[in-house]
Design brief:
single chain; 422 residues; 4 domains; five-stranded parallel beta sheet; 14 helices; 27% strand; binds adenosine monophosphate; binds glycine
Length: 422
């Protein structure tokens, strides 16, 4: 079989490596991929948003199955276009991807179907949004409606900060047109859990839970990033909470999307907060998380491609989805300065063992050398019988991976390990 994976980060590298395990796979093409993914797939210089070129490529190369991984092409209708061209693929169509690309859609869906989430109001007029801030207590959470590279959320500790956030989105358009419509919601507290799930629109099959570390610095300080590391499973997510989430959140969401005429097929990511009043949805993503995928897929014992094809065929209920009882830890190594400005072009070297556990996010090949080319450069994932051992092993392998100006958090998994002890 010939497989095409759209995207080019650490998540896509993890997907490529997992698909490669299927013996029926002859070639995997990754569009555009990156210098590290090139070790496992044929990288093709077609951008993740260039849907017309993706369809052309798929037809010209007799692609048997495609996986659309990032949010942008999903929202732009890559799955619709590929499906119309006769290429079976994994991912929601544009109608269903709106669950991520419009926060207003997601919030209204949850309200309509009684799915627990933070209380909120939607605003399209600046003066009304400011008046709302005046009449409510801080902290408040201000969210731009559309996709904003994961940055469209501002947590305002005071009313003044909230007003500034509202103005920056609606007046100064710091997130572009995404800020024409905003959501203001109540600030919730509690541990966060990411649950990725496979769903064919009828059946929902949660994967092992995980925990992201979004802030740049140790102790969850500093700026928000795309994610500096992950662990799985998340110790806060007990069997009892999992059961509650299935009943109160996962199944109701799948049924709601179907009832709205937007059946969701693909990977639906539930960003949850375990509040004192129970689990609530912080966000939906219409795709695999990055870097959650880098700890979840290494724990998947069943064949990924088989599951994906079952999702496309609407046969998930008949397909085994088995995860290992082990734990995993992924430590992201970034270019110093990320998520702000940073230098790139430094050679990456690693021992064979470390390289085998590495998912490359931002690197290019030049004269046979792998050079850093992005903020998040790579993620090193280790699995072990216990979380403590997985963390230790991931850091040991990080110690064998080198590039100039490398920066990584030293405390990935620390909070989870502390939670295990109580
Ligand atoms: P999102 O892009 O919606 O995931 O938001 C980014 C981060 O902001 C989340 O991972 C949470 O840490 C935080 N956040 C979002 N909404 C809320 C909320 N209502 N209360 C507290 N924290 C929130
Ligand atoms: N790690 C969060 C995300 O993929 O959106």
């Amino acid at each position: 079989m010939k497989i095409m994976v759209i995207g080019g980060g650490g998540r896509e590298h993890a997907i490529v490596k997992a698909i490669k395990k299927n013996p029926a796979v002859e070639t995997i093409y990754c569009l555009p991929g990156n210098g590290g993914i090139a070790a496992d797939a044929v990288c093709v210089d077609i951008g993740a948003k260039d849907i017309a070129a993706q369809v052309e490529f798929a037809k010209a190369n007799s692609i048997d199955y495609a996986v659309v991984a990032p949010d942008d092409p999903l929202a732009l209708g890559a799955v619709d276009a590929l499906t119309a061209a006769g290429i079976p693929c994994f991912g929601p169509d544009a109608k269903a991807a709106v669950i991520e690309s419009s926060k207003v859609f997601a919030k209204d869906l949850m309200k309509k179907y009684g799915i627990p989430t933070a209380e909120y109001e939607v605003f399209t007029a600046l003066d009304e949004a400011l008046a709302f801030v005046d009449s409510h207590d801080a902290p408040l959470v201000i969210k731009a409606d559309g996709l904003a590279l994961g940055k469209g959320v501002i947590i305002a500790e005071t009313k003044d900060e909230a007003k500034e956030a509202v103005r920056s989105m609606m007046e100064d358009k710091i997130f572009g047109e995404s800020g024409s419509q905003i959501v203001i919601e109540k600030f919730l507290t509690g541990p966060e859990v990411s649950v990725l799930s496979f769903t064919d629109g009828e059946t929902v099959c949660p994967m092992v839970s995980s925990m992201d570390h979004k802030r740049a610095l140790d102790g969850d300080e500093g700026l928000n990033t795309g994610g500096m590391g992950t662990i799985a499973p998340n110790p806060y997510y007990t069997a009892e909470i999992a059961e509650r989430c299935m009943k109160e959140i996962f199944l109701p969401t799948i049924r709601a999307m179907k009832a709205e005429g937007r059946p969701f097929k693909g990977c639906l990511y539930f960003g949850l907060m375990l509040t004192p009043k129970g689990p609530k949805v912080i966000e939906y993503n219409c795709r695999f998380g990055d870097p959650e995928t880098q700890v979840v897929l290494p724990l998947l014992e069943s064949d990924l491609l088989t599951i994906m094809q079952a999702v496309t065929a609407g046969k998930l209920a008949e397909t085994p989805v088995q995860f290992s009882e082990k734990s995993a830890c992924c430590v992201v190594m970034a270019s110093a300065g990320y998520p702000q400005s940073y230098e790139k072009g430094f050679e990456i070297t690693a021992g064979e063992e470390a390289a085998a556990h590495t998912y490359i996010a931002g690197a290019k090949l030049a004269d046979g050398k792998l050079l850093t080319s992005g903020g998040r450069v790579l993620g090193v994932t280790a699995t072990a019988d216990t979380l403590a051992d997985a963390v230790k092993e991931a850091y040991r392998l990080v110690g064998e991976t080198h590039f100039k100006n490398a920066y990584y958090r030293k405390d990935i998994g620390k909070r989870a390990l502390a939670a295990q002890e109580v």
